[in-house]
Amino acid sequence: MPGFKIRRARAADIDSLVEHRQRMFEDQAGVESASVDLGDPYRAWAREMMKQRMLHCYVVTDRRGNVAASGCVWMRQVQPSQGRPAALVPYLMSMYTVPRFRRKGLASMVVKEAMEWAKKKGYGKITLHASSTGRKVYSKLGWKRTWEMEVELE
Prior knowledge:
By secondary structure, this protein is an alpha+beta fold. It is 32% helix and 23% strand. The protein has helices spanning 14-29, 39-51, 106-120, 135-140; strands at 5-8, 55-61, 67-78, 87-97, 127-128. The protein has a 5-stranded mixed β-sheet, sandwiched between helices. The radius of gyration is 16 Å and the shape is globular.
């Protein structure tokens, strides 16, 4: 996208990544301020995962260097199954675009960068949990919907 640049996130970007994750959940809940502040627990987790190279994040910046969009790939461990050993699988998460920058292809920039990174590293797939608003972005890039179920245990 003209006027925007994508780059790998650094430790100095942690505040933007935390803010974007919080805003992502607020958007999904349809509220201005989420009832639970995820900032501190996520900040510590993300910082540690980045140190361990288990979390690879990307930021898209505008001409002024402001972070307009971001997203991360978490190397999630999956259990072994018949014929497959335990492994790390790239999981796309925390996708967010600042409202004034939406519909400019920034989320697609992040997804493409993450897909290219995973491909270069030799991974055969990436997974994610898509919000209803994000599904169009992923579908246009070749992602297929899978089936997932959940139950709340109170």
